[in-house]
Amino acid sequence: MISEEEARAKILEAVRSLPTRRSSILQALDCFAAHDYLARLALPNFDNSAMDGYAVVASACTQGTRLRVMGEQPAGVDQQLRVASGEAIRIFTGAPMPAGADAVVMQEDATRNGVEIVVNVEVNPGDFVRRRGCDLAEGQKFLAKGERIRPATTALLASQGFAEVAVGGEVNVAIISTGDELVKPGEKIEQGQIYESNSVLLQGLAQRCGASVRSVEYCPDDRDALTEALQRGIQHDVLIISGGVSVGEHDLVQATMRSLGAKIDIWRVAIKPGKPFLFGQIGRCSIFALPGNPVSTFITFWRFVRPAVLKMMGAADSELEPAKAIAELIVDLRNDSERAHYFRGRIENGKFSIVGRQESHALFGLCQSNALLRVAVGESLKAGEIVDVQIWD
Ligand code: AMP
Ligand code: MG
Predict the structure, then answer these.
(1) pLDDT tens string 106-149
(2) 69: nearest Cα among 79, 55, 48, 59
(3) Residue 234 has pLDDT above 90, yes or no
(4) Which of 81, 140, 275, 280 could disulfide-link 98, Cβ–Cβ 3.0 to 4.6 Å?
(5) How many Å lie between the centroid of ligand 1 and the Cα of residue 296?
(6) Does the pTM of the predicted model rise above 0.90?
(7) Closest residue (by CA) to atom 16 of ligand 1?
(8) Whole-number Å distance between alpha carbons of 220 and 176
(9) 358 lines ligand 1 (CB under 6 A)
């Protein structure tokens, strides 16, 4: 049995980022940038008005000043207008500032009489003017290699004129659920059987990472069937197997992997739930075999499969850890076991409470939770302490 940290380090060392590709900016959502991006346009790209109003020369304006309106500048084409003292240009939000103007008087702060306005406020240089480059300078880095592309990032790329972006490779995933007891949802169930739910969980989790799930199979606890399913599964970048990885006579995954020439790098990690986790490789396929209890499946995906998939997608190291939050613990917790314990709970209004049953089969308990608290071996935490939790939803 190795520690969680050791297992994670071994996995991250074993997996490589896949070849990069070009993607439309919309399709690139939740992908990772393949290189740094520098601004090719300043933002804004020209001085422009922040309001509908009048462009003026601030030094020639004070409360009560009368100005003659010399023209109109809407957003769009620059009319190349000019303003002198005693003059104003009617201007609209986003329109380029006329030469000579250094402030905008809001429409609400001026009274219009025919071709004249009366300014009803004090005016300072820069009022309601958005300066070129004040948000983003030309040449400034706005997206780093390995950074996740979020909706705001796609908008920023669009604002720079990019229709496409270079991103990390697509990770193709196959999923195999093993177990004689499993029945597909929608089908009739017999006494002793259960509905298969792990492949559903794993598809959702893999999709949330941005991986492409290409194949999902059920497989009975049978050597031949498992061999065939594995042979199909290893055609993908990542194969995730659920169940059959423990020590019972029906746990055939490890032996079948070995018979296909797998290099087994990890089996059994000091993590609770999730101890019988296995990681190995056949050719270029990384194989993650997760214990079948649904919460074990979840935790081992979350701690080991997720960072590996993200790394293969080209994520920077800083993107591999889940979002964290600090919270006040509202119960005492201790871990007397020899494995790091992931408690399922809820963070709400800065407080973390334990929810649901904590056994590895308790899927409803998991469903009620939105965050995990890792309690290290021998660690004892008291109610009222501030703890770091991992947000998973
Ligand atoms: P295993 O890891 O195969 O020993 O399975 C451990 C427990 O998880 C058993 O109670 C299984 O019935 C259950 N289990 C295994 N696979 C699944 C699955 N795909 N969906 C739901 N429960 C499962
Ligand atoms: Mg089983």
Answers:
(1) 999 999 999 999 999 999 999 999 999 999 999 999 999 999 99
(2) 55
(3) yes
(4) 81
(5) 10
(6) yes
(7) 292
(8) 10
(9) no
Token digits of residue 378 = 């021998």
Instruction: Determine the distance separating the centroid of ligand 1 and the alpha carbon of 362, expressed in angstroms.
Output: 12
Instruction: State the CATH class of domain 48-130.
Output: mainly beta
pLDDT of residue 373: 98
Q: Is the Cβ–Cβ distance between 188 and 359 less than 8 Å?
A: no
* Residue owning the nearest CA to atom 14 of ligand 1: 292
Q: Does 393 score more than 90 pLDDT? A: no
Q: Pick the residue whose CA is nearest to atom 12 on ligand 1.
A: 181
The CB of 182 under 6 Å from ligand 1? The reply is yes
CATH topology of domain 21-40+138-167: Molybdopterin biosynthesis moea protein, domain 2 (3.90.105)
Q: Which of 187, 190, 198, 250 to mutate to test the pocket of ligand 1 (most atoms within 8 A of CB)?
A: 198
Contact 310, 319 (CB under 8 A): yes
Q: Is 53 in the pocket of ligand 1 (CB under 6 A)?
A: no
Distance CA 60, CA 35 (A): 49
CA distance 115 to 376: 76
| Ligand 2 centroid, distance to 263 Cα (angstroms) | 22
Residue 93 Cβ < 6 Å to ligand 1: no
- For residue 280, the 8-state DSSP code is E
Residue 239 has pLDDT above 90, yes or no: yes
257, 230 contact by CB (below 8 A): yes
Q: Which fold, 2-17+169-319?
A: Molybdenum Cofactor Biosythetic Enzyme; Chain A (3.40.980)
